[in-house]
Structures are given as structure tokens and as C-alpha cells.
Amino acid sequence: MTLAKLTPRQIQVAQLSARIFGRAFSPEGKRTGEHILRKPLIGKQVVGYWPEEPLSVTELKRLFPRLDLMDLKEEGRLDKIESLKRRGKPPTKKFQGKRANLKKK
Questions:
Q1: Residue 97 has what DSSP assignment?
Q2: CB distance 3 to 11 below 8 Å
Q3: Where is the composition biased (Basic residues) (predicted)?
Q4: Which of 37, 45, 77, 101 has an alpha carbon within 20 to 30 A of 56's alpha carbon?
């Protein structure tokens, strides 16, 4: 309903009603998108959808340095690098692998 057809008293009532009920008042009767802002935020629901990640071994080592925890993945990675070095095939440095010299088209 446009407010051009309303009397000044009806406009005042509409303003007062908007103030009482926490709505937006638009004297031109234009859409404001205020109904979207009235909806509750859903951030907590979205975050609560996924379970919390358990602490990793590296985080536990950082939190409790006196426990001498072993990260089996890291130990295995270091063992593999050491065996490759003994065989004379260490991992390549960044940007020095097979594809480093290929030209971009």
C-alpha cells in the first residue's frame, strides 16, 4: 500500500506501529529488504554441524613439550628422506624438479 493514498493521521499511525513492532518504515512504500535482517543469524548452527577436530600430535607436542610424544607420520617421512639421501636421490628443491624447465604456452 502506498502512503500517497493515506491521510497524515494514518501515516503517523504507520510510523508509530513500525517503531513499536521494530519494523522498518518506508514512506514511499518501497521494499527495503528488512525482512532478511530480522531473521536470526545461523552461524552457530552452521559451526555446530561439524564435529570438533581432535588434537593432532603436533598440536599436542606444542601444548605439552615435556611429554616427548612421537609423530609417526613425521618420523616415517624423515626416515624416507634419509633413505633417499643415502641412495643419492634426495628430494628436489622447490622449482627444480622435472617440470621446472618446461615453457609456459
A1: S
A2: yes
A3: 86-105
A4: 45
Per-residue pLDDT of the chain (105 residues; tens, 9 = 90+): 565 678 889 989 999 998 998 888 888 878 888 888 788 778 877 778 878 888 888 888 889 988 888 889 889 999 999 999 999 988 877 777 777 777 665
Cα–Cα distance measured from residue 31 to residue 2, given in angstroms and rounded to the nearest whole number: 11
CA-nearest of 56, 57, 4, 54 to 29 is 4
- Whole-model pTM: value is 0.39
- Asked if 90 and 81 count as a contact pair (C-beta separation under 8 A), the reply is yes
Backbone angles phi, psi at 16, to 5 degrees: -65, -40
Residues 14, 3 contacting (CB under 8 angstroms): yes
